Amino acid sequence: VSGQRALREALQLSTTVSGGAGISSRSTCEAGPCLGWQTRRCENRSGQSLWPPCHATAVNSNAADALLCHVLACWRAFRDSFCFPQALRSTGLMTTDPRLRDCMKQLHQSVHESIGTVMMDQELFRKCVGSNIVLLTQAFRKKFIIPDFETFASSINQLYYNAQLQDGGQVADYIPQLAKFSPDSWGVSLCTADGQRYSVGDTTVPFCLQSCVKPLEYAIAVHEAGSEAVHRYVGKEPSGLKFNKLSLNEDDKPHNPMVNAGAIVTSSLVKVKHLLESKYMSLFHASGFVFFDRFQSERETGDRNYAIGYYLKEKKCFPEGVDMMAALDFYFQLCSIEVTCESGSVMAATLANGGICPITGERVLSSEAVRNTLSLMHSCGMYDFSGQFAFHVGLPAKSGVSGAVLLVVPNIMGLMCWSPPLDRLGNSVRGIHFCQELVSLFNFHNYDNLRHFAKKLDPRRQAGDDRNKSVVDLMFAAYSGDVTALRSKEGQMDIAVQFLTQTCKVNPLVTDRWGNTPLDDAIEFSRDGVVKLLQEYQTIYAHTDPPVRLQGVFSHQDPVLDSDEHGKLEALEGLV
């Protein structure tokens, strides 16, 4: 309601301007602390603020302008002063988002080219955001996968601080570079399928992917060579053994690509020239953070992996013509890739988004590769804890001895958690705790939505969704004449009222917003049969139960609904 009121105000302003009414403008800093640019705050003669700046050409603007004005007018209902970067962050978009590069470039260019204060009028604003109108419309209309992102981020914050209290575990020290990390380091970053992003904690500290690279390596191999070709050399079953065990399945193949033996064989199937293609590099450094300087340390302490390599060579597990030492070096290089939580979350989100990078829109992996990868992550991704993790969390994930946990919520988001202290199975103590608490709060577990299951929070739903669905269900019930779900339909009024009075025994004295009871309406519309039914029922009701006015389930206005919708809801409430 308040958003629509703001829109009407903006449209009234545009009409006033076109009619020649006096408007004064003065410069006030709306976003100086964020970008160093200012906006023109328009005021009428009474001094009332009239932002957003839709007045100049709102009446004659094209459809895109009208759409943007609507979005900004609705946004005004939630913010007294409009700061564009802050508004973006509240929807989950970052000012560094590649999709907003042109928009932010225009804003910064306007700052640098100006002398003095930048006047952010409609023309400049349209110039800056015109190329991103669709994305911004989705953002400010709350059409992203997580509409109320601020509330969701607040919940993630709470989960983060709860997990921070976990102080068990030991930092891995068998690789010198890993032993240097502080056990107090702890960060969580997430990226949704729409590119909404949030980070809390030590999310810009680089760390090695280690085993978290295995699902990405496998996905690239399947994307390039196909699933059948890859699984000619590596299996699909959990091993039930330690990840670095010298062991093969009954077919003399590594059990799966998520253990060291399987990952080494998989690395021999990935062509380096393919990995260096721009689409794969965008997967690894979507946030601009990838280093290979840990490779030497990894190589010097890789005795167990060398043993596995020679064992695989003895069993002829490599494709014909593969150089075992080259395959091992490549595997070490992949494990040594350094990322941050922020860039890692984009990798996870690419898997959650079916192989399309959410912040570039580029398809990186095929749907088949993503499906197979998530299946293996779900069954084999968490070392010897994979079964318990699948049971308690129910989501695809991969952990690494650097303390990273890459978690995928299919079709919704990807997360990267990082905390160096590990439990006895090699998984991050804080990372495991965070994942378990996440699915305890939100219905992300694969089986949370089964019928009769205890309800959890669903961040994909907007406020009022349940109520709106109830209204739609009532309308369809009215159309089909389903008196068990609704109570009225043309030609079946007497049956519906009889059902309500005799079976449901509802209160016949409920009044609508005009003060009319059902009997009043029946008399007004000459429903003689209904009048008779209600008169008889009122007499019975008065003697069996004191006539108490029902408190309507829609008695408190919801800002999601306008006044007409509230009227319809109250009318429906009067019927029931």
TrEMBL record:
Q: EC number(s) of the enzyme?
A: 3.5.1.2
Catalytic reaction list: L-glutamine + H2O = L-glutamate + NH4(+)
Record-given protein name: glutaminase
Question: Membrane spanning segments where?
Answer: none
Q: Into which EC class is this enzyme placed? A: hydrolase
User: Which keywords belong to this entry?
Assistant: ANK repeat, Hydrolase, Repeat
Matching entries from PANTHER family are given as: GLUTAMINASE (PTHR12544), GLUTAMINASE LIVER ISOFORM, MITOCHONDRIAL (PTHR12544:SF33)
Report the source organism.
Answer: Denticeps clupeoides (denticle herring)
A Gene Ontology molecular-function term? glutaminase activity
Task: Give the UniProt record's GO annotations in the biological process aspect.
Answer: glutamate biosynthetic process; L-glutamine catabolic process
Question: Which part of the chain is the Glutaminase EF-hand domain?
Answer: 84-147
Q: Which HAMAP family match?
A: Glutaminase
- The highest taxon in the source lineage is Eukaryota
Return the similarity comment.
Answer: Belongs to the glutaminase family.
